[in-house]
Write a structure and sequence with these properties.
Blueprint (H helix, E strand, L loop, with lengths): L20 E5 L2 E5 L9 H6 L6 H18 L3 H13 L10 E3 L2 E6 L8 E6 L11 E5 H5 L6 E7 L5 E7 L6 E7 L5 E15 L5 E7 L5 E8 L8 E5 L6 E6 L5 E7 L4 E7 L8 E2 L9 E6 L2 E6 L8 E6 L9 E4 L5 E8 L3 E8 L2 E8 L5 E4 L7 E6 L7 E7 L6 E6 L5 E6 L11 E9 L5 E9 L10 E5 L16 H4 L4 E5 L9 H5 L7 H16 L8 E6 L1 H12 L6 E5 L5 H5 L7 H8 L6 H10 L13 E6 L8 H13 L6 E6 L10 H18 L4
Parallel strand pairs: 32-33, 32-34, 34-35, 35-36, 36-37
Antiparallel strand pairs: 1-2, 3-4, 4-5, 5-6, 7-8, 8-9, 9-10, 10-11, 11-12, 12-13, 14-15, 15-16, 16-17, 18-19, 19-20, 20-21, 22-23, 23-24, 24-25, 26-27, 27-28, 28-29, 30-31, 31-33
């Protein structure tokens, strides 16, 4: 099927200069014609985009102009899609406040507002009574005049007098922290730069702990800040010297401990600071051991530890005394059960709670800490999504969770763990209307190349003809053990209402079918991820949900790598491809240990610097390295200039090489957001404009304009 008629009258694509650079590793020499697109001053440019090399800027602007010419005929469609998506969102929406001490804290949007407002009301006040709302932070006011603005929330001190809040106004994910007097709403003089976006209060409310990002954008140092002191005076609490590890700092519901959490994708280590002695050296819990993960939550005089130690691939929960939490004192309380993946856990005065997944579906489990009796919060739909929010207080029987499915708007419940009573607090409103009966959601299984069953979640209108004629948007991710939930998505209804089948392929590399599902899609087994996605496409065609020329594949970040790989492996099986901030230059990135995410990513992809074998694995599938003269479908590639995760030069180089190697295929459209990073635009409606743009491309390629 030729898509050329869909993109008629296009100008000549931008010509990007070729400046070969050679690189030899393990006796293997590669030449990269487009390596020059990586700005030498990228670290500084993330903080000040005006210093970008003019030659590189010219390339990105030329690509944007070409993309706009190709998509010009979709302008009206984009506006229609945006209006539809916006119409499904309650503009003046408000959260149900969470009780914490004398107050209940929540967030809300105003009509037309892009950013949240954070507020509090008296603990048992009526959230509907707007006169009770004390607005602590108005995101729209803070964002005024800025091209990009993202809040990291606000966290109140133990006495509820001060709040730490953070913002990123460049998209580079370097957050600035401020301290707000919650009575006067004035910020104190303290300004903390280059943080990850939050802090953990000491119980006295006079100081807090936070994580600093270094010049390579890695969270490598934990500092202790005393209110009123300059950032330069902050005390270094802990420094992680291994660039392969991420680090974060967290607090406990009982305010008795500060957690320093150090981890990569397969190994973790905790250090603890007792809030009774803030100046003490952080105490090591269990030394890092390659492949062993653990995480902790407090339970009064014990810690509960979720771990895969001792071969517990799908995890188990252990218990240890607060006074001696070392591994030698861990006692099993929830055993390892193959096929039951325990995802997270939390503890309260009388109950232990965990979220697990069986057969691809989530379940919330409750255990009475005194009697040991367990029960599940269960649901009946074929595919659904659960979110476990817990509570902000330790001494409670009531936790909060959310539920949704592809057809059911999100519902928020309070659940009494003692009485098992479920109270519906809120159902997501769809102002423009939504009747679940108009839609069908299904979970089907595609047979992979090695016989594995790959789950695929589907959403389509009940009146769609399943004769192969329907267009299909097939979404995939498949990395880092991340599971794509089968939850309610108001945006995709704009495709479904136009006759699309919306499909999510739960491919290997995620934990959709347990931890083994993740392990079978990483390192030397990474190619399973790509083959699973192609198997999902084959199944949908075989069962006449769609046809190859009608499948538009979509993925972002590591899912963008998936898009690049399947484009190389089976270009004829996709009518179009949307690759958002795609991680496509895998080999070069994994060879560059100065990049923010490279050392922490080696356990996921392999370390091609140290290992020739791992170099060869990556070289065999890295999308940029495997572009060839093939019948690639039309591609929309999205990028962010200040993206620290997938740097702008990766998608730019990829598009240049696609155009060089397969000039008659495509077309290849590159859209670089010159004022944003990995997550795209920051406002809630600005983000919808980007989704509308992507969906307009899908509709155009499917010939449904």
């Amino acid at each position: 099927m030729s898509h050329k008629p869909l993109f008629t009258g296009l100008p000549t694509p931008p010509a990007i200069a070729r400046k070969p650079v050679s690189d030899t590793r393990h006796g293997i020499t590669r030449s990269d014609d487009y390596a020059w697109l990586r700005a030498e001053n990228w670290q500084q440019m993330f903080k000040d985009t005006s210093i970008l090399d003019p030659e590189i800027r010219k390339v990105l602007e030329a690509e944007n102009a070409y993309m706009e010419a190709a998509m010009g005929d979709t302008a009206a469609l984009q506006k229609t899609l945006f209006a539809e998506m916006k119409g499904r969102i309650k503009e003046d929406d408000s959260s149900i406040p969470v009780k914490d001490g004398p107050f209940a804290y929540g967030s809300a949007y105003v009509t037309g507002g892009e950013q949240p407002r954070y507020f509090r009301i008296p603990r048992d006040g009526d959230v509907a009574d707007e006169s009770l709302r004390d607005v602590l932070l108005d995101g729209d006011r803070e964002a005024a005049g800025k091209d990009y603005f993202r809040l990291s929330g606000i966290d109140s001190s133990g006495d509820h007098s001060l709040g730490i809040w953070g913002y990123d106004d460049k998209g580079s994910e370097y957050f600035t922290l401020r301290i707000r007097d919650l009575a006067s709403k004035q910020d104190l003089p303290d300004v903390l730069e280059n943080t990850v976006g939050g802090g953990v209060w000491a119980p006295d409310g006079k100081s807090f702990f936070y994580t600093l990002q270094d010049e390579n954008h890695r969270p490598s140092k934990v500092f202790h800040h005393i209110i009123g002191e300059p950032q330069s005076a902050d005390r270094l609490v802990y420094e992680e010297k291994d660039p392969g590890f991420f680090m974060g700092v967290g607090g406990s519901l009982l305010d008795d401990v500060i957690y320093i959490d150090i981890h990569d994708h397969e190994t973790s280590e905790y250090r603890l600071i007792s809030t009774k002695d803030l100046l003490a050296e952080p105490m090591l819990v269990a030394e890092r051991e390659e492949g062993v993960e653990y995480s902790m939550t407090e339970g009064g005089d014990v810690f509960y530890i979720l771990t895969n130690d001792g071969g517990a691939k799908d995890f188990k929960i252990m218990e240890a005394p607060v006074s001696a939490p070392g591994k030698e004192n861990w006692i099993e309380v929830v055993p390892h059960e193959p096929g039951r993946l325990i995802l997270s856990h939390m503890a309260f005065a009388r109950h232990l709670v965990w979220l697990e997944r069986r057969e691809g579906l989530p379940v919330i489990m409750i255990r009475d800490r005194k009697s040991g009796e367990e029960h599940a919060i269960a649901f009946k739909e074929e595919a659904y999504s659960l979110g476990l929010q817990g509570a902000a207080e330790y001494d409670t029987d009531v936790i909060r969770f959310s539920y949704s499915s592809m057809t059911t708007p999100s519902q928020l419940f309070d659940y009494n763990m003692a009485t098992r009573e479920r109270v519906l607090l809120k159902t997501q409103e769809v102002p423009s209307g939504h009747d679940p009966e108009d839609y069908v959601t299904r979970r089907v299984f595609a047979k992979a190349h090695d016989g594995e069953d790959v789950p695929v979640t589907l959403l389509y209108r009940r009146d769609v003809a399943l004769d192969g004629s329907a267009p299909c948007l097939l979404y995939g991710y498949g990395a880092y053990g991340i599971t794509i939930p089968a939850g309610f998505n108001t945006s995709c209804l704009s495709l479904v209402d136009r006759g699309f089948v919306y499909a999510i392929a739960h491919i290997r590399g995620g934990k959709d079918k347990g931890f083994q599902w993740y392990e079978d899609g990483k390192m030397e087994k990474k190619v399973n991820t790509f083959k699973d996605f192609i198997a999902a496409a084959d199944h949908l065609v075989r069962e006449r949900f769609t046809s190859y020329e009608n499948i538009i594949a979509e993925g972002g970040s590591a899912g963008g790598m998936l898009m690049g790989a399947v484009a190389n492996m089976a270009p004829e099986k996709f009518g179009g491809i949307i690759a958002a901030v795609p991680f496509v230059d895998v080999l070069n990135t994994m060879l560059d240990d100065t990049l923010p995410l490279t050392p922490p990513e080696w356990p996921e992809w392999g370390n091609p610097i140290e290992s020739e074998e791992e170099y060869r694995w990556i070289a065999a599938y890295s999308p940029y390295d495997n572009v060839a003269a093939k019948p690639y479908p039309p591609m929309l590639v999205l990028s962010g200039l200040t993206d620290p995760r997938v740097t702008y030069w990766e998608p730019t180089k990829w598009v240049a090489k696609l155009r060089e190697k397969a000039p008659e295929a495509g077309p290849y459209l590159l859209k670089t957001n010159m004022a944003a990073g990995h997550g795209g635009k920051s406002g809630r409606f600005q983000r919808l404009e980007e989704v509308a743009f992507e969906y307009a491309f899908a509709i155009k390629v499917a010939g449904k304009m």
